[in-house]
Amino acid sequence: MEPEILRWLVKEMGDCLWATARAMPSIPLPPESYEAGRNQYYSTKILKVMLKEVPEDALKLLGITDKDICIPILTYVFGEAQLGGTVAVVSLARLRQEHYGMAPDRPLLLERLRKESLHELGHTFGLIHCPSRDCVMYLSNTVIDVDSKGRSFCRACQMAVESQTGVGRDE
Amino acid sequence: MTVEKSVNILVVDDEEIVRDSLGSWLEEDGYNVEAVESGKKALERLPAKVWDLMLVDLKMPGMDGIQLMEEVRKTHPEMLVIIMTAYATVDTAVKAMKKGAYDYFVKPFNPDDISLTIRKIVDHHKLVRENLFLRKELKKQYKLRDMISKNEKMLEIFDLARTVAKSSSTVLIQGESGTGKELLARAIHDESPRSEAPFISVSCAALTESLLENELFGHEKGAFTGANAIKRGKLELAQDGTLFLDEIGDISLKLQMDLLSVLEQRLFRRVGGSDLIAISSRILAATNRDLKRAIEEGRFRADLYYRLNVISIQIPPLRERREDIPLLVEHFIEKFNIEMGKQIRGVGEGAMRILMDNDWPGNARELRNVIERAVVVAKGNVITESDISLPSIVGRADHRAKSLEEVEKEHIRVVLIENQWNIVRSAQTLGIDRVTLYNKIKKFDLKKEGTGAKEC
Questions:
Q1: Which residue in A171, B51, B276, B339 has its CB near the most CB atoms, within 10 A?
Q2: CB-nearest partner of A71 from B1, B25, B27
Q3: Residues A100, A73: contact at Cβ < 8 Å?
Q4: Three-state secondary-structure class, residue B7
Q5: What is the ipTM of this complex?
Q6: Closest approach of chain A CAs to the CA of B46, in angstroms?
């Protein structure tokens, strides 16, 4: 993916989570995650490989890919995370306007990436989907949902994340 | 932040990859998910939790998805099942839906479709549960132990019963046969501080004078031929508890005297005994007779009446509280569903009309018997007109062919009763003068006696 987008996302995630964020060198997608019949990558298998790559000083590891990802039972996912775990992955493929036959829209793509990255990281903090549309943890299976939901955590979700990052810092 | 924590979903699929991926994906939505690999395992897990939804793969070795759904329905008829399949054919979809599947999904699913469907089911479930909860709460307000009513008079009676339960005063419960006099007596006992002690019921009408005496007071050894051992009477057995004397209006004058003495002195002797035994039980009495008239006619002691009638409760007949009929019907259906293991959901419109229109001379007891029969004979899960059998309809005077004279006699009789035999008011209602009414009474041999409150 474009280094420029990665740099921007690192800063955004660091600001959102009040954390130190840094970019790692890219890792190739594991060949065994490729679902040939669907031309998609099985995100759970990506997460398994990422788990081996988590640096010792890192609380969470977020992967970003340009490829379309899925889990076998669903036609696609925007991202997947280990609920209450360490790793998460987000795909840019279906966040791009081009996927839907429209002209590229970079600011919109960045906003969607920011929301979905925060959403998947939220899952790694143990958050489940939030009933509030204003919260970034609101369930979004379509870009319409992604665009309409809030861009940050609601108070309750924010508190849940803070309680965990606090624990992480003390340790 | 948290949603639907208590929603339990059972995933059944022989493919591990499906179980894992569907399970973790649904968990992100906050559902409790358990995934098993076969129909057999699913049936084993069924009793473990209250499952809200099952996602079942159509093609599995051994028991397939539809067979599993049918098996589940035998014990959980309300279970919602979504069938999943990798092979989309119209035939299997139609078959699954016809067999009662809630929905049918082709793998892989569009995440939005499955999310919305599950959300819809969960919301629907929540509404159903809320509705059930509210209905139960509402019913609690209408209930006194096993009695149920929303009639204003009955609710006043429930309140009064709860209040008098705290005291030890004697209560006289009056009402037609089948109105629930014994149920009310039991409720008073159960609500009272004596509820841990026995509730002893004696039907005074069922026994001869000497048997009833023996039943109430017991006897000493050798009191009479055949009295080989001491027998403790109901008065003793009810110690610290409640003694319920049903059909008190039917006891002999001699026993009335004995009972009066017990109530006044709170002491008694066993038959053939000399020791005085103190009683600590509370006395409740009931009758379907008009005791005031029995006093006038010298068949009941006035002093006993006043001793019993410290607190008086008159239960209205069912025909005067028709609003209770649907409530009672639902109550009895629930009761008999449990007793007979049936799944009757309610009463059809036509059947309910018959039940509402009937006069119920045998009151709630008769209604209960009619519903019991209907639950037994009902073929579907709704009681229909053909399931209702009302013997009273056939025998009722106004349903058989009769002469004009008979109708006139019956009408005059009813009007007289309604006006408590006040001749002036009855004549006014009938639109005739007093002399004519007297003549008709004479002609038809109508008598106040025997036409009073006792109609059933």
A1: B51
A2: B25
A3: no
A4: coil
A5: 0.84
A6: 24
Chain A residues with CB under 8 Å of B84 CB are 73
Contacts of A128 in chain B (CB under 8 A): 1-3, 27-30
All structural domains of chain A, each given as residue ranges with its CATH number in brackets, are: 3-170 (3.40.390.10)
The sign of the torsion formed by the CA atoms of B403, B409, B410, B412 equals positive
pLDDT bucket at A166, cuts 50 / 70 / 90: low
Q: Any CB–CB contact under 8 A between A77 and chain B?
A: yes
How far is it, in rounded angstroms, from Cα B299 to Cα B89?
Answer: 83
Cβ distance of B108 and A75 shorter than 8 Å: yes
A32 vs B: CB within 8 A: no
Mutate to test the interface with A, among B1, B106, B116 (most CBs of A within 10 A): B1
pTM of the model: 0.54
| List of long-range contacts for B375-382, beta carbons under 8 Å, 24+ apart | B375/B332, B375/B333, B375/B336, B375/B337, B375/B340, B375/B342, B375/B344, B376/B340, B378/B342, B378/B344, B381/B343, B381/B344, B381/B345, B382/B344, B382/B345, B382/B346, B382/B347, B382/B348
Rounded to an integer, what distance in angstroms lies between the CA atom of residue A113 and that of residue A90? 8
pLDDT digits (tens, 9 = 90+) for B69-98: 999 988 887 789 999 988 767 788 788 888
* Interface residue B16 vs chain A (CB under 8 A): no
Q: How far is A77 from chain B (nearest CA, A)?
A: 7
CA-to-CA distance for A79 and A112, rounded, in angstroms?
Answer: 12
A87-91 and A61-65 beta bridge pairing: parallel
What's chain A's length in residues? 171
With CB atoms and an 8 Å threshold, state whether A129 touches B110: no
User: Structural domains in chain B?
Assistant: 8-137 (3.40.50.2300), 149-316 (3.40.50.300), 319-397 (1.10.8.60), 402-443 (1.10.10.60)
Tell me whether B18 touches chain A (CB under 8 Å).
yes
Please tell me if residue B30 touches chain A, with a CB cutoff of 8 Å. Answer: yes
- Hey, what are A128's tokens? 């489940």
Closest among B244, B241, B221, B243 to B231, alpha carbons compared: B221
Asked if the model's pLDDT at residue B398 lies above 80, the reply is no
Per-residue pLDDT for B38 more than 50? yes
Q: How is residue B76 written in tokens?
A: 């959980």
From chain A, pick out residues whose CB is under 8 angstroms from the CB of B27.
83, 128
Q: What is the pLDDT of residues B442-452, one digit of tens each?
A: 888 888 754 43
For residue B316, with 0-12 CB atoms within 10 Å meaning exposed, 13-18 middle and 19 or more buried, which class applies?
A: middle
B61 touches chain A (CB under 8 A): no
Contact criterion met (CB < 8 Å) for A75 and B110:
yes
Which amino acid would we find at residue B249? G
* Average pLDDT for A40-61: 95
Residues of B in contact with A81 (CB under 8 A): 28
